[in-house]
Write a structure and sequence with these properties.
alpha/beta, 10-stranded mixed β-sheet, 25% strand
């Protein structure tokens, strides 16, 4: 793990790759109802792919480990990774399963509803002989849960052995094995995930702080609870702080959390403090939601540098 300040941290991402089928609708249909879509777009996505792209655009040198089908979607996703200069040599090709697909409804209120067919993501199998050398040179491992949980746990163990910090975004949320908690340096959860893993309602910064304290007690060194437009709560041994959100006109919230995660990982890899990293994440996510699509909406480091600063954080 590199604790010195560095401009381009090395980041390894283990996670999913999907082709997003994005449908713009005025409103989501009720049960049994049919509505007409305003448009349909095929866009690169998947939480692993999104977070890898966010890390790359925001200043990291990124190596991605995942799994694609041997099909047109897979070819398009590989090309997209190459365009963002992401090292995809660790992305496997599955001869049996198709590339993962996500159907995303985005309504006029900028809210999204997502259904994922995992495809090849569900058959991702860790190649320790390739991952271990990558982790030995990396500042952090970034992982989510759209690939099998057992493979994520194995990756976290390899990262710990290599002295590489682990940033985990447990999404989609599920029960976590006890063994993984102590392997995580920084846990990043939204309100729903914080409530499911920490217990209790999470809708306000104060409630997020309570959940974060419970999650800290399970092993991670740091916990960040994202609260959408309300910003985020950062928690560590120094206590809990609320970082306010930024007022923007949202167009599409898809990939906002992944953009936050990428910005956070790069900033921490550069040696910035947790609070500085959270503020960077808020700025990047605020830009993301003003644009449509997943990866097309992820900003660059230069765009974030030129954006306004969020309001100062306050202790909780």
């Amino acid at each position: 793990m590199n604790d010195a300040l560095t401009d381009r941290p090395r980041i390894v991402v283990v996670g999913s790759l999907n082709m997003d089928l994005v449908l713009r609708v005025a409103r989501a249909p009720e049960a049994g109802e049919t509505v007409m879509a305003e448009s349909l777009h095929h866009l690169p996505g998947g939480k692993g792919g999104n977070q890898a792209v966010a890390c790359a655009r925001l200043g990291g040198e990124v190596q991605l480990f995942g799994r694609l089908g041997n099909d047109g979607h897979g070819q398009a996703l590989r090309a997209a990774l190459q365009s963002d200069r992401i090292d995809a040599i660790g992305v496997q090709t599955d001869a049996q399963a198709p590339t993962g697909v996500a159907t995303i409804l985005v309504d006029d209120a900028a809210q999204n509803r997502i259904v994922v067919a995992a495809g090849a993501n569900g058959r991702f199998a860790l190649d320790a002989s390739a991952l271990s050398p990558a982790l030995s040179q990396a500042d952090c491992l970034v992982a989510q849960l759209e690939v099998p949980l057992g493979e994520v746990l194995a990756a976290a163990r390899l990262a710990q052995a290599a002295g590489c910090r682990v940033l985990l975004n447990p999404s989609p949320v599920q029960a976590l094995p006890e063994a993984i908690w102590s392997l995580v340096d920084t846990l990043v959860v939204n309100e729903t995930e914080a409530a499911a893993l920490g217990g209790g309602e999470v809708g306000t910064p104060a409630e997020a702080a309570l959940a974060a304290q419970k999650l800290l007690g399970r092993g991670p060194a740091r916990v960040v609870v994202t609260l959408g437009a309300a910003g985020a709560v950062a928690a560590d041994s120094a206590g809990c702080r609320h970082h306010p959100g930024m007022a923007v006109q949202a167009v599409d919230t898809t990939a906002a959390g992944d953009t936050f995660m990428g910005a956070l990982a790069v900033a921490l890899g550069q040696g910035q403090s947790l609070d500085a990293a959270v503020q960077r994440g808020i700025r990047a996510a605020a830009l993301c939601v003003t644009r449509a699509g997943a990866q097309p909406s992820i900003p660059t480091a230069a765009e974030v540098d030129a954006s306004p600063l969020p309001s100062p954080w306050s202790p909780l």
